[in-house]
From TrEMBL:
Keywords: Transferase. It comes from the Bacteria. It comes from Deinococcus cavernae. CDD domains: NAT_SF. This is GNAT family N-acetyltransferase. Residues 114-260 form the N-acetyltransferase domain. GO terms for molecular function: acyltransferase activity, transferring groups other than amino-acyl groups. InterPro entries: Acyl_CoA_acyltransferase, GNAT_dom.
Length: 260
């Protein structure tokens, strides 16, 4: 029994083949270059050999590609398959939604704004890195900041607009960053790629104010819906979501393999 791997666009197809006949297959969708999700897993119920070959192929993919798998459930055959292949749950996220057709939160905090387009990428990355300092749920470092920023730009796709990502200031001092983003494949839905408050300005309610401003920006760009997410352990961000009228709709689990 052998595994045939084929790739087309954003899908990876692993097929167990024996004597020219398919014995089962695994279909993986690439949500992002390094974030995958199993779309379909089919194999004969008692085919231990097929299962073993798929597990071997998954383990090799984990080592070679260093991607994560996203799962919307925990107790499924897919989760069992990932775990047998050596993948483990690395983090959980809470997902929220909010209608932007309803009245937005009123937060009486004012900012001065400078866009990525105005300041350039080097300056923007510098402030973005400051705003992420001490954030246990943001993993950028001075060594990876440019690469992490490039990944955000790539993920924004055709809807990337450098005039819409901002540095926030008060009285001439940089206090945070705000990255409102419309989804490339959903014209009525937006998110915030990141918002962060610089360390010395935390604890003043600026996180909530930045989030509220982000909702306002998305609404002005034609979004009818907002979707957001954060690490399940990030109680501060989950509190901001609740204060600004967002509803937690589900949770997600992220698996990492031996090579990540």
């Amino acid at each position: 029994m052998t595994i045939h791997e084929t790739r087309e666009s954003s899908t990876i197809h692993l097929e167990c083949v024996q004597d020219g006949l398919s014995q089962g297959h695994l279909l993986i969708r690439q949500l992002e270059p390094k974030l995958w999700q199993v779309q379909e897993w089919k194999a004969p119920q008692h085919s231990a050999e097929c299962m073993s070959e798929i597990i071997r192929a998954l383990r090799a993919l984990g080592l070679a590609e260093q991607a994560q798998f996203l799962s919307n459930n925990l107790n499924t055959p897919v989760n069992n398959l990932l775990e047998q292949a050596g993948w483990h749950v690395a983090k959980q996220k809470a997902l929220v939604e909010r209608s932007l057709l309803q009245p937005l939160p009123k937060v009486h905090v004012s900012f001065q704004w400078s866009s990525l387009e105005e300041v350039g990428s080097a300056e923007f990355i510098r402030v973005l890195l400051i705003a992420s300092q001490g954030d246990p749920f943001q993993t950028s470092t001075p060594q990876t900041a440019e690469q992490d920023f490039a990944a955000l730009v790539e993920y924004a796709g055709t809807r990337f607009d450098p005039s819409r990502w901002f540095i926030a200031a008060q009285d001439g001092q940089e206090v945070g960053v705000l990255l409102p983003q419309m989804y490339a494949d959903r014209s009525d839905t937006g998110t915030l790629f990141y918002l962060g408050v610089c360390p010395e300005f935390r604890g003043r309610g600026l996180g909530r104010a930045l989030h509220a401003e982000g909702l306002k920006q998305l609404q002005a760009r034609g979004a009818a819906n907002y979707q957001g997410s954060t690490d399940l352990r990030n109680e501060g961000m989950r509190h901001i979501f609740a204060l600004n009228g967002c509803t937690e709709v589900r949770q997600q689990w992220f698996y990492e393999g031996a090579g990540t």
